[in-house]
Structure formats: C-alpha cells, structure tokens
Design brief:
This protein has 8 helices and 11 strands. With 265 residues, it is α/β, with parallel strands linked by helices. It has a 5-stranded parallel β-sheet. A hairpin with a 2-residue loop joins strand 8 and strand 9 (200-201). Bound molecules: adenine.
Amino acid sequence: MRVDVVSIFPDYLAALDLSLVGKARQRGLLDLRVHDLRDWTTDRHRTVDDTPFGGGAGMVMRPDVWGLAIDEVLGLPDGAGVRPGAHLIVPTPSGEVFTQRHAENLASAEQLVFACGRYEGIDARVAEHYRSAGVTVHELSIGDYVLNGGEVASLVMIEAVARLIPGMVGNPDSLVEESHGAAGLLEYPVYTKPPSWAELEIPEVLLSGHHAKIERWRRDRALERTAQRRPDMIAALDVASLDKHDLALLGELGWVPGPEGLVRA
Ligand code: ADE
C-alpha cells in the first residue's frame, strides 16, 4: 500500500518511523511518504492560508496550494485521470467518526492520501473537487474533541489501518478477538504471569485448561464490560448472534430483546 501524508508540520509524522509501521516500511509492505505542503506554494512567504470569506475568526487553508499538492501525490498532473483505488482522507472534527469498519475498508486500498489541515480547516472546495473528479474522499473525525490539526488524527488512522494489512501483524490471530471486532463487543480482560500480584489472583477458570469454560468466561466478561462501558454497542448487537446464555446474562444486566434489538428492561 502507498500512503502519502501532506502537512505543514511533516516532523509531526516522525513517529511513523517507529514500531510496527516503521518495520512495515523497512520490509517494503508500506510505501509511506510524508510531504511538506509548503513545497507547493508559489509565493515568497510560502503562504498556505488566508482569511475566511464571510468573516469570522481564524484562517482557512487555500484550495489552490492543496490542489497542486494533492494532484501531484495522486499522480494527477494537470488533473488528468484518477489513479483507481486512491482514497483522499481529510481529518476534521466535523467529519464522520472513524471506526474499525473504516480501518478495515481502507486496509485494502491501493493508496491513501492524508491531507492534514490546520487553523480553521481546508477550503471546502478541495473535498468537493476531488469527489467530482472520481476520487473517494473521506472527511473523518477521530472523536468528539478538537485537535490543533489533522496530523495526530492521521497518525491514529494510519496505525489502525496499517496493522490490518496482510503480513503486518506477526500473529494474525491476535486480530480476531479484539475490541471492535466482528462480535461487536469490547475485548475481555487479559492476564499474564505472575499468577499472584498485589494480592490479586488470576481468575481460577483461566488456570483450569478447560477451553470451553474459558471461552464462556471470556464472553461473559466481554458482555459485562460492554454493557457497563458501551451500552450503545449492546443496543447495536444482532440478537440472532446471541445464544441462550448471552441473553440470560444480558437479562441480569438489564437488557431484553425488543422489536429492533436489545433495549433496557
Ligand atoms: N482535526 C482537529 N480535530 C480533529 C479530530 N477530532 N479528528 C480529526 N481531525 C481533527
């Protein structure tokens, strides 16, 4: 996969040299390039922003500078043609909320281009222009809070996507049961050695070697944890995916099947 990140603070993206993403770059699984937006400015002051039409506080990033940058990283000189399989991602607090489903979909893309805005954001015509040119454009937020720019949000999304690229994670089984996976539940609590620590013991069942009991215990803890921390995820469960035992436990936790999924009793 090729990933391009365009930013006025390319040094922010230095973390992409580290850990799993850094290794994937070294191994050639990921062709990741970070660009300085100011390389596409044409004036002496290397200007990337201007005041907002209609007035108001702050500055807005200019579409002409962004257009030159994005055309070049998309391989679209003079607006000619669109590289199939390219996605343009614009991190913004006003975007759709980024989830594991977005990460899964983006993991099979040929190219991802992240356009990191600063100030009050990027002129809205940039997303509109590339959408009409046939590029898949995603305006995505990483959560309901405001950052100073799209760089940290891009780091978050790149890490979430990169670990799903085939060959990236050493043991792909570790991707199967994690939080926000297909089961729609948060992950159960995990433990390792030593078996006794700070006067806290490992739950007995995990030392039993009884696989079916361990699986049941883990599912119960996942259901309890999800009900407590993320009731929205319980409400979104497909009732048909739940067994009798799941429904009994959820009943004890105050959830019963309604006409369209589980509701609070
Ligand atoms: N830029 C500023 N805040 C952001 C957020 N919450 N998500 C994505 N990009 C952002």
